[in-house]
Write a structure and sequence with these properties.
- Chains A, B, C, D: It comes from Muribaculum intestinale.
- Chains A, B, C, D: Pathway: Metabolic intermediate biosynthesis; chorismate biosynthesis; chorismate from D-erythrose 4-phosphate and phosphoenolpyruvate: step 7/7.
- Chains A, B, C, D: Homotetramer.
- 4 copies of one chain form a homotetramer.
- With 364 residues, chain A is of the alpha+beta class.
- In chain A, 26% of the residues lie in helices and 21% in strands.
- Chain A has a single domain, classed as Chorismate synthase, AroC fold.
- The first copy, chain A, has a 5-stranded antiparallel sheet, covered by helices on one side.
- In chain A, α1 packs across α3 and α6 runs antiparallel to α8.
- The longest helix of chain A has 23 residues.
- Chain A is globular, with a radius of gyration of 21 Å.
- Chain A starts with a strand and ends in a 6-residue tail after the last helix.
- Chains in contact: A-B, A-C, A-D, B-C, B-D, C-D.
- At the A-B interface, β1, α2, α6, β11 and α7 of A face β1, α2, α6, β11 and α7 of B.
Chain lengths: 364, 364, 364, 364
């Protein structure tokens, strides 16, 4: 993980700005011999796509991906997979008033300070459109994971929006249930309440944050490289790199720190000689000592409310003078529903990378 | 960050097991020309040392570090700094009953599964004694940071133990105040209560978790490499790699996800032409778009209760049969006080790495 | 350097097959603030382009590069530069007879063995068309180098073809002199003889090898990272990664190993107090202890004769049976003239990477 | 490969100066489950040790290695192997006259320029004593390779000293034959002549260069990662990083560039259905398209004459003034005999790294 490349052996390098010609990337280290289902890649992009419902941004992009290399007769060849998604619905004029003005709590000020120049159109590189490339990288990784571990299945959903928390958080849910509503929360009553809340804040020109939960079933034991490459540290870095992420926890997380060890240890019991033992609880969240133990991996990512408000806010311009800004452009009132496929992608990329690294753990 | 190496340009590679000959490492990428204060390195090791107070493990180690290279006449030469800390007070016999038995919620089972072999003595490589090498790496990094940014100062403290939360969490405190008690909590009333709680759980053969807060003052704007090397993602990976860490958040963190954007944006105002603007709040925790903005970096790390209980627990052995284990050995009832210098070390290592990477951001 | 990415801080990741949709890549770590001259990038591609003269392959590709990101108003922004060059003149049918047959001394057999699948069309990923992406990466790097070191100039030329060696090898020559003939040899008499030799072997359906020399003037002292990142080792890895490269040497190279130390040491003499000393010879080739010393960097790369002969050769098919192959397709009888811009590109990429790494050598 | 770390999955990080406390390193990524023969590690160190014969330096070091971690009951555990070799016979006073004087063609001037400070005692970090750590890393790697590929055997020998070339260069020789003389040349007549030449130049206070050849038998097909991680490029970088190396070639190397393709292609013929084909020649040197093809890997490394002459030479001091230097200290008149085990170590480290990387090439 450095600069614009995720991963060590399964490596996804991304490029592209919100209002540039294209978003794209290179997937390096995809093992050869995987029959690639292009529709499932596009399906994940469609889940991330703007304009998919009343609670997401109105920007209209078809976000069709073109794979440029690395696949022959539908099968991966072991060579890098280059891909691009053309931008088409840029309204760059909407951003003219931001050329010299820093949006509060955005990356505008920090990019300008770091690089001396910045692309002010739609957030440039710091736009969440960059996550398109991650969704492609994750959807490809998922197909390698399925070939390796047919039972592995990643379940990612919105578990909290504002003060509304779902019931049954931390359990694995079927993808169809998650996608049965546009909030992507498997608790339908909570989903309805979350949707109302999002529309309320949207109506007020405001935004709201929340939490995404990811549960991975069918992870083999042994993934993760101590000390510096612990599985949860790599998952944490991947999740925290998503736009608007402010926190990451796994297993008992922050809540568990007020508990006693006697409440929190995961006791094992025998399933019979020669069988892997059974864990009678999973406070560890599927990871012990940085290595997966075969139980479900359970993790949560906190997302802040989007910083772009559709109302006038005080700020400064690049000459250092006070000014105000009334953002135009098209923005999500709540990133959670569209963050769900991005979290899923980062989980898949990280787990495949860990699976490949684990191939070197033993001599045989 | 991979396997046993932290960092990209400032790289700390660690080795060593709890009951092996030594813990040590190699610091690579330390810039030349830093006058190295060896006492400040040893001071940090002393803060991490076992047996320093009634609320820490009784293992008695002097933990004297020997630097083997990379320094001449007290000044760094730009070449790698090898170092070792000899182990001396191993009571390996205490662990004989664990040779074939997996301690619940420890790395015993996952190491055995991953590698086929494991060092059962004192946790082997998964022991927190490994953090000795990080403390050395961090103390050296801190001296480079001070040479670069004289105003930078890292304040790390215990902010919560069990249900007891300090008042004034998230503020910068002087190191002397933090070290004025053995819990390392700058709120003395809370510290007293935490100490009582730790002694209570210790008396019951139990353990307790908590939260460490880190606040870094004097960070220059511009540190952090988007997209895959965001500053908070690198800090998160570093912190999550510490033994017993279960969660990481920065700025508004998990709590902020229930708030509205209008409450959470950090508005800037002018300090006059040619001056950097003033932020009137710091919900961002000093990082926007993955790049530091010059405000205090504020972050929190959640630590679980230690898994080793000094009472009998049910578990399985490596033949898969049920058994019980009554741990001997010497263990901390609460890792928080000794985790404080480790969090500080990881912060220093990550910030120096980010500072060196940032030297390539612009052509001039 | 790993898999499909060159470099540590200036990183060029490439993708694409000879007969796929496109060749392309991502340039990561390009410093912000460089005014980018697109024509000079295209100029280098034109120098590498097939079909440019009677002594190169007849494949006709315009090889127009499209930059997709990382540049705004003509200036680099510090974000990754994605780029593609579309393939257009594939004659994939020419390769139908190679689907199941391994061309001798090609990568056909090794790719099939390694990956289980292979793209047989035009060599797939092992085709020298991949070097398009390197030429783009190098041309961009060159512009950063020029901004940093206005005196730096890379001179790369064909110094030997078969038995014909130029006079004056190892000296810096002006680009215009090098490009004054299609062999790219600055000794015109030798160039004429080389050209005749290439046409002779081409007429016989055969191929011929040679040597490319690179001389870099204006390199600052201090580039190169001992021990594992020595400047000449990084240059060597970069050059040896070029298709058909079989050897690399710098300075006195292989010939110097039969000489005595007293003949080969580069003595320095004073240029006056406060001035850098003068070297009275340059057997070191501008690099001592893996670090540049300010003298011209001089290096040579040996290229084998192209393995594809336009005549019938014995080989085996993928069932393991004997067969013969009469290659069609369009091929160079000698790679040297077109390898010249690729060597130049690899030199530029490596030197920029070294220059960025060197920014971390000292504290100030 | 960067700074002081070799390798991607099998990573050897080294530290230590010639006259510091110790040379050492960390081996990371050694697979678990290898029974480690400590004597074979020490044996390789003894082959590299100074003072072993009349044609090597008189410095007397026992060079005993101490492994500090990563091994339990004689078996590797998958955790990093830290190790140190104490320096004992430093005669640092011999170097007092070099504190302010740059030895010609040494790294003195370049280190001083790069870092601002330098360790003048015995070359500091640029001393060939650093290769001790590589020899340990290589000897450990060799044991993993033997466990993986029982037929693999690396044969490294001195093939040329000055003008004296052995007969039969490029063939595999038994280690016992190579070590039957102190030049480590398997052609005894040539070895005698080389020995006389080395003693002659030594007597004259001069030094001489030469060539080391390495032949690896029993390499499986499939090692090497195109495009940036070609096997010969990684081997080349490894070899060129050895002190005094000036050139690297494999297979037909520089000589082959004057030959025609029809002479140089390696034709395959059938060994029967289901069998791997036979190559009837090996001009490729065992590597095609950057990937091993199962034939012997054949490569050569050119070493310059040692720059330290035991006679007076002109040079400059660190104030920029002319001066002369008469080196004392103890130096090799010819590095070749002691370079042999270092070349062997770099080959083993690189091949193990490639073998581990290759485990990710295919999905199954």
């Amino acid at each position: 993980m450095s600069m614009n490349t995720f991963g060590t052996l399964y490596r996804v390098t991304t490029f592209g700005e919100s209002h540039g010609a294209a978003i794209g990337g290179v997937i390096d280290g995809m093992p050869a011999g995987v029959k690639l289902d292009l529709e499932s890649i596009q399906h994940q992009l469609d889940r991330r796509r703007p304009g998919q419902s009343a609670i997401t941004t109105a920007r209209s992009e078809s976000d069709r991906v073109e794979l440029l290399s690395g696949v022959m007769d539908g099968v991966t060849t072991g060579t890098p997979i280059g891909f691009i998604v053309r931008n088409s619905d840029q309204h760059s004029r909407d951003y003219d008033n931001m050329r010299h003005v820093f949006r509060p709590s955005h990356a505008d000020y920090t990019y300008a300070g770091k690089y001396g120049v910045r692309d002010h159109r739609g957030g440039g590189r710091s736009s969440a459109r960059e996550t398109i490339a991650r969704v492609v990288g994750g959807a490809v990784a998922m197909q390698a994971l399925r070939a390796l571990y047919p039972d592995m299945c990643i379940s990612v959903y919105t578990s909290r929006v504002g003060d509304i928390c779902m019931r049954g958080d931390g359990i694995w849910y079927a993808p169809s249930l998650i996608d049965s509503n546009d909030v992507r929360c498997p608790d339908r009553a909570a989903a309805d309440a979350m949707r109302s809340l999002i529309l309320d804040v949207k109506g007020a020109g405001d935004t709201i944050g929340g939490v995404v939960t990811a549960v991975v079933r069918g992870v083999p034991a042994g993934l993760g490289e101590p000390v510096a490459g612990k599985l949860h540290a790599m998952l944490g870095a991947a999740m925290l790199s998503i736009n608007a992420a402010k926190g990451f926890e796994y297993g008992m997380g922050f809540d568990g720190c007020c508990r006693r060890g006697s409440e929190m240890i995961d006791v094992m019991e025998s399933r019979g000689a020669g069988e892997a033992p059974r864990f009678i609880s999973n406070h560890s969240g599927g990871i012990q000592g940085g290595i997966s133990n075969g139980e479900d991996i359970v993790m949560r990512v906190a997302f802040k409310p989007v910083a772009t408000l559709l109302r006038e806010v005080a700020t400064v311009d690049d000459s250092g003078a006070d000014t105000t800004l009334h953002a135009r452009g098209r923005h999500d009132p709540c990133v959670l529903p569209r963050a769900v496929p991005v979290v899923e992608a980062m989980a898949a990329m990280t787990l495949l990378d860990a699976a490949l690294l684990n191939r070197s753990a033993r001599i045989i």
